[in-house]
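To the wet lab folks,

You asked to see what we're planning to order before we commit. Fair enough. Below is the target structure as tokens, and below that is the sequence we designed to fit it. If anything looks off to you, flag it before the synthesis order goes out.
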């Protein structure tokens, strides 16, 4: 992946500015990295992951994933952002372990937060094809991780190399999925969640930029769209552009079955327009719009608006970091290589 030196320099300056801002009298208002639990995130080479993990045992893996994704994308391009969301839900519950794919009563997949997840059939199709060529070799977790990368590329996003060697979880609990954000949390709450997973403030802002594509249901934004109307208390918080609010109220007047693009300007293009929308008070989710009103995240948002190429570079970096959360790897780690992503193996 090619990265311009000015972009990297800007990011370094940006992080320095944010850290400096935290140190200037804001200790009482905002938690800092030193006051939140920050588990160590080891580089992937210490996690028994490697780029050539399947080079000898399943050299055709990435070709199979690429071909299958192009096939599904041709039929339904909305599956690409769905895979990004599926991967995010998997990693943010118990780590990147494909526990979200287990399909049984009481699993994460049965949680209310998982109700609108899509793309399971894509992973199943890829897994079935991989099993024909490389039986019991490639984990569902690695397939989901690589498929998410390729889906991002199909949307016009950046490419990054995926290190392999993850194992699949043998457990999945519906209660674990209840910790996922639902779209109205504060920046502090989100930052605490991200840091508990070994991610940082830049990762929070940049990974939120995945909302440059995809949709959400009208039901998920009722409070944001109708706050202050029909006798409800107060004004929208965070604020929302009047014309955009009017559009959303008309779009969602029939209830929660309608869907709204997360990026109202360029909904099918992977770009940094998402951040420019925040500047115009057109963040669809409250959690997104708060990135522009919080003094910790605002400098990062502004930098991504001013230098769009910075978003592409850092998104790839943050996605690699995301895929390393609580990975099961190595000969002594618990976990298995599921032959069917929906069920644990029977021995």
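Sequence we intend to order:
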């Amino acid at each position: 992946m090619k990265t311009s030196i000015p972009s990297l320099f800007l990011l370094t300056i940006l992080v320095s500015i944010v850290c400096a801002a935290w140190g200037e009298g804001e200790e009482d208002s905002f938690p800092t990295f030193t006051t939140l639990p920050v588990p160590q995130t080891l580089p992937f080479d210490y996690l028994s992951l490697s780029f050539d993990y399947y080079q000898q045992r399943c050299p055709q893996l990435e070709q199979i994933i690429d071909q299958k994704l192009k096939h599904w994308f041709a039929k339904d391009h909305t599956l690409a952002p769905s895979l990004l969301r599926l991967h995010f839900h998997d990693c943010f519950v118990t780590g990147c372990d494909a526990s979200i794919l287990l399909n049984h009563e009481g699993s994460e997949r049965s949680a209310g937060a998982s109700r609108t997840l899509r793309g399971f059939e894509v992973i199943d199709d890829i897994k079935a094809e991989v099993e024909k060529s490389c039986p019991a070799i490639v984990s569902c977790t690695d397939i989901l991780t690589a498929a998410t990368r390729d889906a991002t590329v199909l949307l016009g996003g950046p490419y990054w190399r995926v290190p392999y060697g993850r194992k699949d979880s043998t457990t999945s609990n519906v209660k674990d999925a209840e910790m996922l954000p639902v779209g109205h949390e504060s920046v502090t709450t989100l930052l605490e969640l991200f840091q508990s997973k070994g991610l940082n403030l830049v990762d929070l802002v940049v990974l939120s930029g995945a909302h440059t594509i995809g949709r959400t249901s009208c039901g998920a934004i009722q409070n944001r769209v109708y706050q202050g109307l029909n006798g409800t208390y107060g004004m929208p918080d965070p604020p929302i552009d009047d014309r955009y609010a009017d559009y959303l109220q008309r779009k969602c007047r029939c209830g929660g079955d309608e869907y709204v693009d997360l990026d109202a300007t360029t909904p099918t293009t992977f770009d940094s327009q998402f951040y420019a929308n925040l500047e115009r008070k057109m963040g669809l989710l409250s959690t997104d719009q708060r990135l522009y009103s919080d003094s910790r995240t605002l400098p990062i948002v502004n930098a991504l608006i001013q230098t769009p190429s910075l978003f592409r570079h850092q998104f790839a970096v943050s996605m690699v970091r995301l895929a390393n959360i609580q990975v099961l790897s190595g000969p002594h780690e618990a976990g298995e290589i599921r032959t069917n992503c929906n069920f644990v193996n029977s021995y």
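Structural context that might help your review: The beta strands are 215-217, 259-261. The domain at 44-179 is CATH 1.10.520.10 (Peroxidase; domain 1).

Thanks,
Computational group
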